Request: fold
Amino acid sequence: MAALDRVKVLVLGDSGVGKSSLVHLLCQNQVLGNPSWTVGCSVDLRIHDYKEGTPEEKTYYIELWDVGGSVGSATSVKSTRAVFYNLLNGIILVHDLTNKKSSQNLYRWSLEALNRDVAPTGVLVTNGDYDREQFADNQIPLLVIGTKLDQIPETKRNEVLTRTAFLAEDFNAEEINLDCTSPRYLAAGSSNAVKLSRFFDKVIEKRYFLRDGNQVCQFS
Reply:
């Protein structure tokens, strides 16, 4: 069997939001029994059929890079993480739906990865206002995933999901909300599964195809 082409997708977010559980669910289709803190970075593989069911269908490896979630502001911490940001093709931003702070920190995480070669410019979000121009030229596909959906009381669910919908809009990204302890949220044919597949297709297109559909040769 010929070696499969692959793309690199970063999985970013605060410690404790469930990135490792999410990656395990995406790659193994199983619930992670005893998740532990990720030190540095952990990489897992998912097989994805690009444009499944069409004449253009082709199988790729999706490398999911689960980056440790310390939000430390020290330059040394960010410099250490920067080595994982090279040659990225897509980003999954993960936040805890029960923790508003983890949602707000996604702005910092995304800009840290996308502007890895640029010195920090200070406050990114002020009084809840977000500068959309910071992402105006971004060509890296983004996906926002909210975890711990099961832990939100029914009486507050609409309020929380309305807030996170605006978050995804800021990133010009699709949004998936789920419970990482239940594979049914990503069941084949579900709206979440369709969104995930569409995101991976977009990542592959950005990596291997020009906008007019002609394939380009790129080697990492």
Summary: The mean pLDDT is 85. The CA atoms of residues 101 and 220 lie 35 Å apart. The longest helix spans residues 191-208.
